[in-house]
Amino acid sequence: MPRAFWLGVGIGLLLVAAAGAVRIALDARDESLPVYMTVPDWPFVDQEGRTFWLGQTRGKVVVLAMFYTYCPDICALITARMHELQKQVAAEGLSDQVLFVSITLDPERDTPKVLRRYAQARKVDFTNWVFLTGDPSTIHQLTEVLGIYAERVYMINGTPVATPEASAGTATYIINHTDRIFLVDRQGRVRALPPGSRTELPNTMEKIRRLVREQPISSALLPMPCSLSIPF
Amino acid sequence: MSASKTFQAALIGGLLLALVACAAPAATGPKIEIVDPWARPGMSKEMSMGKGHGDHGHGDHGHGDHGHDDHGHGGHGGVANSAVYFVIRNEGDQPDALIEAATDVAEKVELHETRMQGDMAMMRAVPRVEIPARQQVEFRPRGLHVMLIGLRRDLEVGDTFTLTLRFEKSGEKQVTVTVKEKNP
């Protein structure tokens, strides 16, 4: 056989091997995002007062955070980080595939109108961002599913008091809470836990792109959904 | 040594001592400067100002299929807050302390600090913030901040307002705060 023939075979084999290596690397990268938990399909109320089931987010990649409007520091930063992500998502033409969800930890103060004005003050795009409030018990159960710690601290003029009753109703409260954002895939599974107000945008955007590229898996392989305990 | 020489030595020593004492600068106290004060955007307490039908003193629970909002009982309709950040420089030779802040754009102003314990954000009010001599203290996101509670008007990017800071020794300092969207 002429030398050129064997040279061509060798080059062909190298190309096949290289393609295989690239494919393996891509698959490995896509498979590297773990599965932490599944976001339950529970009802909330959005900033327009409409019922919003978290299951409505299935089919889209979701950037989710829990916050409250009374908090001027960390929560404002979390919302700002998400806003920057929203702008970058829009710049990459992914707005129809990525949804932003902010859920309050403080349903007693954060009514739909309060949430709407909070979001309007920050000029977010409501096209693919919802701000949710809801039943306090549902919100509490969601924090347990997501592993979010939230603790109320009652205060009078900045001084902590043991209970709200001790202040004869004059105390206000803050909520100490976990500083975290959740990246959720199209099947409602949490796949990444960026550090909330300290989120690095390039790294998080790369994860969002990865989740956008992922192919949905069969529903038969998904874990059983969480059930909502409704107290009577 | 003769008495006259002793006297001369004492005189020269005394003159030298006086010279050194005069050359050493007297303690002047703290010298406070506020650098780059800015605040986050925020919304006013629209509901407690009585705007909108049926909004007076009412909030809502926000559950169930409303189709419209702000009906219900209890609640306070949400309190609109913001935070102010800046750097305090003390170029003096004495320490000072920030003990109070006030502004017309909010009903209440408190000094607060956010502390991170792992990924837990904990916020607490602080009664005073020490400003050591010849040092600076930074009020920044995820740390010290002046909390504006109950905004009386909307704060939009580009707006300005006056904030009065009261120091233990230096007294009151008024600064012009600019509303910005900064995300360090």
Task: Give a short overview.
The complex is a heterodimer of chains A (232) and B (184). With 232 residues, chain A is of the alpha+beta class. Chain A has helices at residues 3-31, 74-91, 112-121, 136-146, 201-213; strands at residues 37-38, 43-45, 51-53, 61-67, 98-104, 129-132, 150-156, 159-160, 172-178, 181-184, 189-192.
Could you describe the 3D structure shown?
The complex is a heterodimer of chains A (232) and B (184). Chain A has 232 residues and is α+β, with helices and mostly antiparallel strands. Chain A has a domain at 37-150 and 178-212: 3-Layer(aba) Sandwich (Glutaredoxin), CATH 3.40.30. Chain A has 5 helices and 11 strands; from the N terminus they run H-E-E-E-E-H-E-H-E-H-E-E-E-E-E-H. In chain A, the strands form 3 sheets. In chain A, strands 1-11-10-4-5-6 form a 6-stranded mixed β-sheet, sandwiched between helices. Chain A has a 3-stranded antiparallel β-sheet with strand order 8-7-9, with no helix packed on it. The longest helix of chain A is centred in the first third of the chain and has 29 residues, at 3-31. The N and C termini of chain A lie far apart (85 Å). With 184 residues, chain B is mainly β. Chain B contains 1 helix and 10 strands; from the N terminus they run αββββββββββ. In chain B, strands 1, 2, 3, 4, 5, 6, 7, 8, 9 and 10 form a 10-stranded mixed β-sheet that branches. The longest helix of chain B is centred in the N-terminal third of the chain and has 21 residues, at 3-23. Chain B is elongated and about 90 Å long. Chains A and B meet through helix 2, helix 3, strand 8 and strand 9 of A and strand 2, strand 4, strand 5 and strand 8 of B.
